[in-house]
Design brief:
With 503 residues, this protein is α/β, with parallel strands linked by helices. Helices cover 32% and strands 18% of the residues. The protein contains 15 helices and 15 strands. A nine-stranded mixed sheet has the order 1-2-3-5-4-6-7-14-15, sandwiched between helices. A two-stranded antiparallel sheet has the order 8-9. A two-stranded antiparallel sheet has the order 10-11. A hairpin with a 2-residue loop joins β1 and β2. It is globular.
Length: 503
């Protein structure tokens, strides 16, 4: 039986028997986790369908984990069964299909110790990890994954009175494509564009806005990501291209080295030239109310804005060993050799020195991009030969891969290549919905200074747009961090506790 026929058969079978959306409090497995030397007991509710009529049941389900203390009138970290926030981590990478997460299965970098879900339980959070469909399936194309995450939020709201936790305090978390979907989930809360599909799936009749968003290195604003990438890496012709495959539901990455040929360099030039007009059309401003714009050559206040995040990370790294002295004056690093080595290793930084220590004064952004190196060939996302993961994301039931930008559609190397419809592209871009009325007030965005999977401009645009819409945005580009997430769990949960408890 062909794959499409099998999916159709599964879909008809699922439609024949609708799933209940009522939380079954007595159906669980008792489990424990070791976190920082302490044992946390919790109840595991796994494999719960979050829509009445799933089309891919193995992905359209949610795992919910609840500390045992909340069933016995106990409290953890100042939270009770009535007040505990709900941590909503998705497991999505590369816009591939993702099963619900399980505590202890996704440690950052494979390091020992508690992962984000275990840490959340130890800190008194309810953990609800939704699965979602992905780009490799005919029924998982854009915007299927965001439909699924919204349906999971609606399930939690529908069952707010039946289970511990406060559904008014749902905090999403994700990395890479999962980070982009975390942002999109927050930005698009209760938007009517998604309603017909949610009704067709049998999602609960409840709101899908959330309380706060955590996003690591979001691969977002996809229809402008090619231009953003070339704005940052134009002129950097050597690359280490990441070959991404899926193995056992985990994204596997392998580097392939090469050099852009003349045709690819021409594409890079043309895409870079598009970016200033796009940035200028957004009307972004910095914290002082000054316009963030670009000149035709790519320089300008927006580039300085992006560089300021990188400079702040470099400054923190440069001065991490300074010692607080009298009257708040910092005593310089006692290891001047380390400082000298730092400056030598990062010649794209201009350093000022004075009696209080060394400080980063300027970032040469062009030299920085060259030092970091290119990772993707142009176009980075909407490939002319339809070979990228994002091309597959924007496919449909008839064409597995499609273009989603005007540039690549006009210059396609594939005869008869299709282009995604405007409505789908809109529903995958958070900028379509971010405004003063956007529900989450609290946002945390992290993208490392060594991240080369997408342009740093993408996170900067998101941060500025959110700040200009009156949101509280905790945005940083951690020093030396590559494309990854959940690497700063102490800081993440301190931020989460702070916004929930009003600190």
């Amino acid at each position: 039986m062909k794959k499409t026929a099998l999916i159709a058969t599964m879909t008809l079978a699922n439609l024949a028997q609708a799933h209940s959306l009522d939380f079954a409090a007595d159906t669980y497995t008792a489990k424990t986790a070791e976190v920082n030397g302490a044992t946390i007991a919790y109840r595991a509710y796994e494999g719960i369908p979050y829509v009445k009529k799933p089309v891919e049941p193995e992905y359209q389900q949610i795992n919910i984990y609840i500390p045992e203390a909340y069933f016995n009138g106990g409290s953890i970290n100042g939270y009770s069964a009535a007040t505990a926030p709900i941590f909503l981590p998705n497991q999505i990478g590369g816009y591939m299909p993702a099963k619900p997460g399980v505590p202890g299965e996704r440690r950052h970098g494979g390091q020992p110790g508690a992962d984000a879900m275990q840490t959340a339980l130890a800190k008194g959070y309810i953990v609800a990890s939704p699965g979602a469909r992905g780009r490799t399936s005919p029924t998982g194309k854009a915007p299927a994954a965001i439909y699924d995450l919204k349906a999971a939020v609606r399930y939690l709201r529908h069952n707010d009175a039946a289970m511990p936790g406060d559904a008014e305090k749902i905090i999403s978390n994700g990395t890479s494509a999962g980070g982009a979907l975390s942002v999109l989930l927050g930005a698009s809360g209760n938007q009517p564009d998604y309603e017909p599909a949610l009704k067709a799936l049998g999602a609960a009749e409840a709101r899908d806005d959330i309380y706060a968003v955590s996003a690591y290195c979001p691969i977002s604003i996809l229809e402008h990501a090619d231009a953003a990438y070339e704005w940052e890496f134009n002129g950097v012709n050597d690359y280490e291209k990441m070959d991404i495959t899926m193995l056992d539901y985990k994204v596997e990455r392998k580097l392939v080295k090469g050099t852009l040929d003349a045709a690819e360099q021409h594409v890079s030039d043309e895409l870079k030239a598009q970016f200033p007009a796009y940035v200028n059309s957004l009307g972004l401003k910095n914290a002082r109310g000054e316009a963030l714009t670009l000149n035709d050559d790519g320089s300008g206040s927006f580039r300085d804005y992006v560089a300021s995040y990188i400079g702040a990370a470099a400054d923190a790294e440069l001065n991490k060993n300074q010692i607080p002295g009298a009257l708040g004056v910092l005593i310089p690093d006692p290891n001047p050799e380390r400082v000298a080595a730092f400056v030598e290793e990062n010649p794209w930084l201009t350093i000022d020195g004075n009696f209080t220590g060394n400080h980063v004064r300027k970032v040469d952004f062009v030299a920085y991009a060259k030092a970091m190196g290119r990772q993707k060939t142009p176009p980075a996302f909407d490939a002319l030969d339809l070979s990228s993961g994002e091309n597959q994301l924007f496919g449909d039931a008839h064409q597995d891969t499609r273009h989603f930008t005007a540039y690549s559609a006009a210059n396609s190397a594939v005869k008869g290549a299709g282009t995604a419809d405007a409505a789908t592209i809109k529903m995958m871009n958070p900028l379509s919905y971010i405004s003063e009325k956007t529900a989450p007030q609290h946002w945390r965005i992290r993208v490392g200074t060594k991240d080369r999977d997408t342009s740093h401009a993408i996170a900067a645009i998101l941060a500025a747009k959110l700040q200009n819409s009156g949101k509280n945005v905790d945005m940083a580009m951690p020093w030396g961090v590559p494309h990854s997430g959940d690497y700063d769990l102490d800081e993440l949960f301190a931020w989460m506790d702070g916004i929930v408890k009003g600190k």
